[in-house]
Amino acid sequence: MEHLKYQPFDQLNPYKSHSTLKARVTRIWDAHDFINKEDIRSLDMLLLDEHGDQIRATIPKKLISKYRALLREGQVYLIRKVNVTFAKGNYRPVHHQYHIYFKEDTSLIEICSANSDFPNFKFVFNDYMDIPKRYQQNTYLIGMHTIL
């Protein structure tokens, strides 16, 4: 495959057109409606670039059937033709200022040879003593892991 140019996440800008991103899908989940728990409103995922930057991506409900079978956690893809917007709302899973949305003409190409070049996961650890300070801050999700 010829060498394709792509943009790292730290160069994304919602005011410019983005033709290609290269990213590992680290997590995929169904985002359910808050009122009707049975209704899936989107397919969401976390993407990780080769520099370790992480961003959230969303596939709208009407496009889920088109893309779900093409995506697998742990795989690296070239992703073309996405919308980049400012991240907004509460309980965001990652600390990135932008959010990626798939469109009808978004395309995916799985890149098997890139798997070793990309980190597998990204974790952001917080000091245990800082957790109570974040109690009323609901912009980002926070999880706890304990060792007994």
UniProtKB/TrEMBL annotation:
Protein keywords: DNA-binding, Metal-binding, Zinc, Zinc-finger
InterPro entries tied to this protein: NA-bd_OB-fold, RFA1B/D_OB_1st
Domain Replication protein A 70 kDa DNA-binding subunit B/D first OB fold residue range list: 6-109
Record carries keyword Zinc-finger: yes
Keyword Cytoplasm in record: no
One Pfam family matching this protein: DUF223
One of the record's GO molecular function terms: zinc ion binding
Family: Belongs to the replication factor A protein 1 family.
Name recorded for this polypeptide: Replication protein A 70 kDa DNA-binding subunit B/D first OB fold domain-containing protein
Native species: Liquidambar formosana (Formosan gum)
